């Protein structure tokens, strides 16, 4: 536990993957390794750290609107910012560990939801670029998170922009629903027409076969001495050259889509590990011990930094005193003596 806390405090990446193997083709995270060894508390701690680091890795800053509360990446606390709940009078250890684990679940859920929303915005951006072939719909990371940031509104006031957007969404949904119903009805009508035409063709099948046989025997074989329809071989059609640029773009998009799918699967797995930690008292206690170790390491680091700074100041003062003493000695040596009276 102390080793894991020390590595995370020093900036180790909790979301790295091991080399792929036949049993685990996508690799395994540190949380998976800890869970396989039975350390569910460490697994939940590492999974929460991976989610918060993934969100901070996106490097998306939130723009504050007037007096709105800070939301987005700032609302999710990193592991270094979390502190174990202090033990008070009358508090039970199980209750404190449960409170800390529930805080971890809330933090991990917010991080996973915001990462998923950012991925959806990026996917929409790629679709727009693929459809229009220009960079007019490029969305920066700041705009992406500002679109999903939740703003705090004062009670009793309504936002006109939100109402207008809701009306537009409702109108588009109604038009889409009407178009979908129309296409379904048209498809059913086409199927009915196809069945009727097939019935008519099968009804006149014998007449058509007899007519084709007469045409084949009399006209083609006897008069023209040809091989007939049975020996007719159509010429193969030449295939048009495929577009290499479009195929390469599709391949790149498929690769990005597959990578994003694997990332979302890892995020959901990490969130599930954090949630499963709440169900086991031993895992909750282990998570609290990790938080205490991290807090202890941070306090030791602060004390060490302050002690180093004060010691450097003392060394500088000693050097200054030594220089002053040396100057005084030099003044005594080179000071001219008064002549005897």
TrEMBL record:
SUPFAM superfamilies: P-loop containing nucleoside triphosphate hydrolases. One of its GO terms (cellular component) is nucleus. Keywords: Activator, ANK repeat, Calcium, Calmodulin-binding, DNA-binding, Nucleus, Repeat, Transcription, Transcription regulation. Pfam families: IQ (PF00612). Residues 231-253 are annotated as: Disordered. InterPro entries: IQ_motif_EF-hand-BS (IPR000048), P-loop_NTPase (IPR027417). Its main location: nucleus. GO terms for biological process: regulation of transcription by RNA polymerase II. GO terms for molecular function: calmodulin binding; double-stranded DNA binding; transcription coregulator activity. PROSITE patterns: IQ. It is found in: Nucleus. Belongs to the CAMTA family. This is Uncharacterized protein.
